[in-house]
Design goal:
2 copies of one chain form a homodimer.
Chain A (H helix, E strand, L loop, with lengths): L31 E6 L6 E7 L2 E5 L1 E3 L12 H7 L4 E4 H15 L3 H5 L5 E4 L2 H5 L5 E3 L4 E4 L6 E4 L1 H11 L3 E3 L11 H25 L5 E6 L5 H12 L5 E4 L8 H11 L9 E3 L5 H9 L4 E3 L2 H7 L2 E4 L2 E4 L19 H5 L2 H9 L3 H27 L3 H13 L4 H4 L2
Helix pairs in contact in A: 1-13, 2-5, 5-6, 6-7, 8-9, 9-13, 9-14, 10-13, 12-13, 13-14
C-alpha cells in the first residue's frame, strides 16, 4: 500500500476520549442527541447517554466476552479511546456466573470499568451449539459448551442475567439464523424474534433497573422485504435503540452493504442504530455512510493476537520474516503507545516467543486504529466535511489487499 | 497464616523507585557505595552505579529472559519498584539474535527500558542441554534448543554478545555443575571457571564498552573449602562485582543457607555481592542477613502465571475454588494496583478463562511483593533497625506453609 493518509486522521488525541465536556449537562439514560447530520447521506454524529455516562457516536465497541477485553486493563481501553465495551450474557452467566457477578457488585465493579457496558444476549452463541440446543417458541434449551450442563434461555432469563450483570445497554433475545438459511427459516426466525421482542418489551420494566437501556433487534437477513417488515414491528416497540442482527453471518459483503444501505436509513432517526458483529474498516465506513451509530466486532482484538495489525496504509502481518529487522513502528503515523515505543522487530520477537506482552501491545494498536478510523468519521460529521473524508477512506479500503494475500 | 505484618512493610511507595534523589551526584559506572551496615550482622545497604543509573541494594532483580519480563511493560516494572531487570545472553543471542539487537539499538532500546539491565551468560542453560553440548577447556559446543543449530560458547563469545546487547552488568561464562555433582566434577568446574574468569578479565577491556560492568562468579557448591579457595581467586581479578553461582541447583535449603552464611561475609566488602538464581522470600532474608546485595529469581513471575501469589500473610493459590466468590483483594494490606483494584474472584475468573490479563495482574502483584519484601529490609538497614525487622520477617517465613500444602 503506497497511500498513507495522515491527513485523514483526526488529531491523535481526538479519538481518545468521549468528547463530551465535563460541563455538558448530564442527561437521563436513554437520551440520544443527534449532533450533526451529513447533508449528502444518512450519516450522522450523535451522543447516547447511559447510566455510566455518554458515548459519542458513531462509536466502535470492543468485545470483552467474559468481562475483560483480552489482555487489556481498563486504563488501556481508556487510553486507546474506548467509550463502551461489550460483554456476553451467555458466557458471563456461566463463567463466572451471573449471580456471582451480582454478588461481586456487578460487571463494572468486577472488572474495574466505570464506563458503559453493552451486553449481547449470547443467543447467537447458543444457536451455534450444534446438536446441543433445541429451539421452541418460548426459548431455547441448550447444553453449555463449558460443561454440558442443561439450561434454558428465554427473553426473561436473558434480561434477568443482564439485570444481574448491571449492563448499561441490554440486548434482547432474538433468533439469528445463518446467512444461507432457507427463506422459510428466515421467516420463522423473524416471527420468533418478534414474539420474543414483544415479551422482552413487556418484561423489561419489571426486570431491569430504571437506568438500564434495552435495545430491540431486527432480523431478516438480506431479504429487504422481510427486513422492512421486521423493522416496522420492532420500531413500534418501546426500545431505547434498534439493532440490525443477522449481518456478517455468511452472506456476501456486497449483500451485507446493500442491506445496510437500504435498511439503516429507514430506522428511526431519534433512536440509536446499532449493527451487530461488524466489521472490517470497510464495513464500518459502509455502516456510518448508511446512518449507523454503533458497531462491535472481535476483529481488532482477535486479529491482533493472530498477528494482523491494521494501519491507514493497509494491514501488516507481524509474523512475516521481513519485519524481523525492522526498527520502525507498525505505523509511523500512529500515535498509539505501541507505535510510539516499539519496533516491528520487537513485536515480531514477542509474538514468536509467545510472550503475553505481544497480545497487549498488538490489541492496543488495533483498537486505537479502529477508534481512530471511526473517530475520523465522527469528527468529519461534526465539522461538516464527511463526504470528502468518506471518499478518501473509501479509496484506502478499496485498494486494501485482502487479508489472505499477506497472511502466510 | 494468622499473622499479617503491615508494620513490617515499608511505606507502600518506599519500594517503588530507586531512592536515589535526583540531586544525588551522578557517579561513574561501577561505583559502589555502602550506605549503611547492620552492627549485628554482615547485612548492609548500598548503591551501585551503572551506565543507566543507580540501583539501591539489597535489590531483587526480575527475570526477562528474552528481553521482556513476561507480560509486563516497562512502566509496569517501574510501578512495582523494579530497579534493574535480567536478560539471558544465550537466549537473546539466538532469539531474536544479538546482532539483530545491536542493529535495533541495543536491548534497552529494543524493549523500551531505560534502567539498568544485567545479563547472565546463559552458560547455566547451555549446560542443561542434555546430550546437546560438549565441554572442553576453552568453552562449550552446543546445539540450541531452538533449532538444533550448532554453536560454540566461550568467555569471549559471551562478552561479545553482551557487548552487542549493551548490558549494564555482564556476567562472565562459568561452569555450574549440578548440586549433587561428584567432588571431582566440582573441582573441575572450579578450575575451569577460574580459567574462563581469567580470560574474561583480560578480554573485557577490548570487548565491552567502558561503562559496561563485568561480574566474576564463584563456584564450589556447598563445599566451603572449595568455595573459599575460588572466592580468593575470583576476588583477586578486576571484576566490578562478585557473584555466587551454583546455589539453588539441587542442594538442600539448609546447605544453601549455610553456604551463604559462611561465604558471603568473606566476599569483598567494597564490591557488590550477587547471589544468582535465588529465591524464596526466606532465601532472600537469609541472603541479606549474610551480606548479599543482589538476587534474581523467576519465582515471582513464573509462580504468578501458575496461580501462586505471595503475601505477607502467606501464599495464595488463586486456582482454589474457595476464591471464587471472594470480593477481597489478594492481600488487603498490599498497595499494588492489582490489589487496589481487583478481587480474588475476578483474578480466579481471568485465570480460569486463560485471559492473558491474568498473568499481567498476577505478575505485577508478586513482583511488588518481592520488591516490598526486600525494600523493607533495605529501609530497615538504612534506619538502623534491621535486627528487629529480620527477626519479624523470619517468623513470617518460618510458619509459612510449604507451597505443596496449598497447591492442588
Amino acid at each position: 500500500m503506497h497511500a498513507t493518509a495522515s491527513d485523514l486522521r483526526p488529531h491523535p488525541r481526538a479519538g481518545l476520549t468521549c468528547e463530551s465536556t465535563p460541563s455538558a449537562a448530564w442527561r437521563a439514560p436513554g437520551t440520544f442527541e443527534v449532533l450533526a447530520a451529513d447533508p449528502a447521506s444518512p450519516a450522522r454524529a450523535g451522543r447516547l447517554w447511559t447510566a455510566h455516562g455518554p458515548i459519542d457516536t458513531p462509536c466502535f465497541m470492543p468485545v470483552g466476552t467474559y468481562g475483560a477485553v483480552k489482555g487489556l486493563e481498563p486504563e488501556d481501553l481508556v487510553e486507546v479511546g474506548s467509550q463502551i465495551i461489550l460483554g456476553n450474557a451467555y458466557h458471563l452467566a456461566h463463567r463466572p456466573g451471573y449471580e456471582r457477578v451480582r454478588a461481586l457488585g456487578g460487571l463494572h465493579r468486577m472488572i474495574g470499568w466505570d464506563r458503559p457496558i453493552l451486553t449481547d444476549s449470547g443467543g447467537f452463541q447458543v444457536f451455534s451449539l450444534r446438536g446441543l440446543q433445541r429451539l421452541d417458541d418460548g426459548g431455547v434449551d441448550y447444553q453449555t459448551h463449558f460443561d454440558g450442563s442443561r439450561h434454558r434461555m428465554t427473553p426473561r432469563t436473558v434480561l434477568e442475567v443482564e439485570a444481574a450483570l448491571g449492563s448499561d445497554i441490554c440486548m434482547i433475545l432474538d433468533h439469528c439464523p445463518p446467512g444461507d438459511a432457507a427463506p422459510k427459516l428466515k421467516r420463522e426466525a423473524v416471527d420468533r424474534s418478534t414474539r420474543w421482542a414483544v415479551a422482552a418489551a413487556e418484561l423489561r420494566g419489571a426486570i431491569l433497573a430504571p437506568g438500564q437501556l434495552c435495545f430491540g433487534i431486527v432480523q431478516g437477513g438480506t431479504d429487504l422485504t422481510l427486513r422492512r417488515e421486521h423493522l416496522r414491528t420492532i420500531a413500534a416497540l418501546p426500545f431505547d435503540g434498534i439493532a440490525l442482527g443477522g449481518l456478517s453471518v455468511g452472506e456476501s459483503i456486497a449483500d451485507a452493504h446493500a442491506t445496510l444501505a437500504a435498511i439503516a436509513p429507514e430506522m428511526p432517526t431519534e433512536r440509536p442504530r446499532y449493527v451487530m458483529g461488524i466489521g472490517t474498516p470497510r464495513d464500518l465506513l459502509a455502516a456510518v455512510r448508511s446512518g449507523v451509530d454503533m458497531f462491535d466486532c472481535v476483529m481488532p482484538t482477535r486479529n491482533a493476537r493472530n498477528g494482523q495489525l491494521f494501519t491507514f496504509a493497509g494491514k501488516v502481518n507481524i509474523r512475516q520474516s521481513r519485519h524481523r529487522d525492522d526498527p520502525g513502528p507498525v505505523d509511523p503515523g500512529c500515535a498509539c503507545r505501541t507505535c510510539r515505543r516499539y519496533s516491528r522487530a520487537y513485536l515480531r520477537h514477542l509474538h514468536e516467543q509467545n510472550d503475553p506482552l505481544y497480545g497487549r501491545l498488538a490489541t492496543r494498536h488495533n483498537l486505537f486504529f479502529f477508534h481512530q478510523w471511526v473517530g475520523a468519521m465522527r469528527h468529519a460529521l461534526r465539522e461538516g466535511r464527511f463526504s470528502a473524508l468518506a471518499a478518501a477512506l473509501a479509496r484506502l479500503v478499496d485498494v486494501d489487499p485482502p487479508a489472505a494475500a499477506e497472511a502466510g
